[in-house]
Design goal:
- This protein has 243 residues and is of the alpha+beta class.
- The chain has seven helices and 17 strands.
- The chain has three domains: 7-58, Roll (Structural Genomics Hypothetical 15.5 Kd Protein In mrcA-pckA Intergenic Region, Chain A); 68-132 and 220-241, 2-Layer Sandwich (Alpha-Beta Plaits); 137-217, Pseudouridine synthase.
- It has helices at residues 9-15, 21-29, 96-99, 123-130, 153-158, 197-204, 235-241; strands at residues 7-8, 33-35, 38-39, 45-46, 52-54, 57-58, 68-73, 104-105, 114-120, 138-144, 160-162, 165-167, 171-174, 185-190, 209-217, 220-221, 230-232.
- The protein is globular, with a radius of gyration of 19 Å.
- The model has no long low-confidence stretch (mean pLDDT 90).
């Protein structure tokens, strides 16, 4: 698509590297985006060269290299670059040369969760990765506060309406019967990533998740990255994300 053609405003904002397309849609819904002096509405289009303001700041088209990386997110850090009250964020763990880029999380993990996280400044990649239609499998290892009853597996697979969302797992695998506490350990596969979906799905079935680790996204498995460590993805790695 040429820069002389009108594009959806959320796409222009994402391509500028400010945030993901989904977050850009939220800014528009909240009335925080102005184009040519007018408050934008979802669905509006504009030329990428149009004067666009987000949160009263001019949108600057990026002239920076595209970077996508994975992190082994530790517990206790937040996936945000827009919350001034966040004590510690995943961006505090990045080396200085990457901090100069306008990176954001493509799909989040909550503060108490750990594991595989994708961080990028590629708005299109983030949109593809987080959009439900792509059905990219995400695998989680879960430890519950009490023994899991295998008769509850169909409830998790069939799904439940909870707090205004329909939550469901694609696959639930109890841990092998080895070691202490194996009855509390599970592996859960999801296609989507609604807010705190794994935790809320178990809450709806009267379980409390004590530990949650995301171990896989698409064809990329978390291995050989220490907690808080990162790996820059090459072209082949990015293809594996969508495998």
């Amino acid at each position: 698509m040429s820069d002389q053609e009108e594009q959806r405003i959320q796409k222009i904002i994402a391509n500028a590297g400010l945030c993901s397309r989904r977050e850009a849609e939220r800014y528009i819904e909240d009335g925080k985006v102005r184009v040519n002096g007018k408050v934008a509405e979802l669905g509006d289009k504009a030329l990428p060269s149009a004067p666009i303001f987000v949160n009263n700041k001019p949108l600057l088209m990026k002239q920076e290299r595209i970077v996508t990386l994975i992190m082994n997110k530790p517990k206790g850090v937040m996936c945000t670059n827009s919350d001034p009250h966040a004590e510690r964020t995943v961006f505090d763990l990045l080396p200085a040369d990457l901090l100069r880029l306008r990176l954001f999380c493509a799909g989040r993990l909550d503060k108490d969760s750990e594991g595989l996280l994708v961080i990028t400044n590629d708005g299109d990649l983030a949109h593809r990765l987080t959009h439900p239609s792509t059905e990219i499998v995400k695998r989680y290892r879960v430890v519950l506060h009490r023994d899991f009853n295998k008769e509850d597996i169909p409830k998790l697979l069939n799904g439940v309406e909870y707090e205004g969302d329909f939550l469901k797992a694609e696959k639930v695998l109890p841990a092998p019967q080895i070691g202490e506490g194996h009855q509390r350990r599970l592996e859960v596969h999801l296609h989507h990533g609604k807010k705190r979906e794994v935790r809320r799905l178990f809450e709806a079935n009267r379980y409390f998740v004590k530990k949650l680790v995301r171990v896989q996204i698409g064809g990329i498995i978390l291995k050989n990255i220490p907690k808080g460590g990162i790996k820059i993805l090459g072209k082949k790695d990015i293809e594996r994300l969508f495998a």
